[in-house]
Amino acid sequence: MRSILIIFLVLVSVQVNAQVSVRSKYKVISQSKYIEKFVNSYSISLKRYILVDEVYNVKSSKSISNFSDKDSIISATFSLLKKRKDKIILNHLVNNSNDSLSYLIEGIYRFYNSDYSMAINSLKKFKMEEYTFLKYLLLADCISESANNNEVSDLVKFYQKAYDSATTDTEKHLVKNRIKLIRYN
């Protein structure tokens, strides 16, 4: 009986001390689902969401390049990361290293693998205006996750830039919610 109690206590302490991975903390959701769940219903989200136009369930894709438009490539990247198919993303990055979108994909990849300083470097190199909101949101999230108190001003700056570059009320709602989560956690 005593050995069972010791094993139980060890298992509990391991789970308590285990760091929650970024993959489980950040959920990818389509804008329409986010509106339905949180904006229209005035519910409060206790999770951190990343908005995409449409969530793709990538099952058998051997390459991200099979997708034709940028939105699909970004959604496919999140789907592959969720399924831990990192090799497909790395292969895409090697074969498309000169593509401007590759900096964003690399930033997303590094963020999901908790390599925050490299994610910040990649995201800062990304220059396409079309995804400015996602860029600044991820930059702020990288700083938030790295828990470096010296960068609090950068955290505020990047969340403000994400808010300023938001093109929809849904994106603004997401940033406000993110700030609430950080403030009260």
Write up this protein.
64% of the residues lie in helices and 5% in strands. The chain has helices at residues 2-17, 22-25, 31-39, 70-82, 86-95, 101-112, 116-125, 132-146, 152-165, 169-184, and strands at residues 26-30, 48-52. It has a two-stranded parallel ribbon with strand order 1-2. α4 packs parallel to α6 (101-112), α5 (86-95) packs antiparallel against α6 (101-112) and α6 (101-112) packs antiparallel against α7 (116-125). The radius of gyration is 18 Å and the shape is globular. Residues 1-20 have low confidence and may be disordered.
- Terminus-to-terminus distance: 38 Å
Oligomer state equals: single chain
**Number of DSSP strands?**
2
General shape? globular
Class derived from helix and strand content: mainly alpha
Q: What's the story with the biggest beta sheet? A: 2 strands, parallel
Helical residue percent? 55-70%
Mean pLDDT, to the nearest integer, reads: 79
The helix count comes to: 10
Which H/E pattern describes the elements? HHEHEHHHHHHH
Spans with pLDDT under 50 lasting ≥5 residues?
1-20
Strand content: 5-15%
Strand order of the largest sheet: 1-2
Q: What does the radius of gyration come to?
A: 18 Å
Provide a quick synopsis of the model.
The chain is mainly alpha-helical and 185 residues long. Helices cover 64% and strands 5% of the residues.
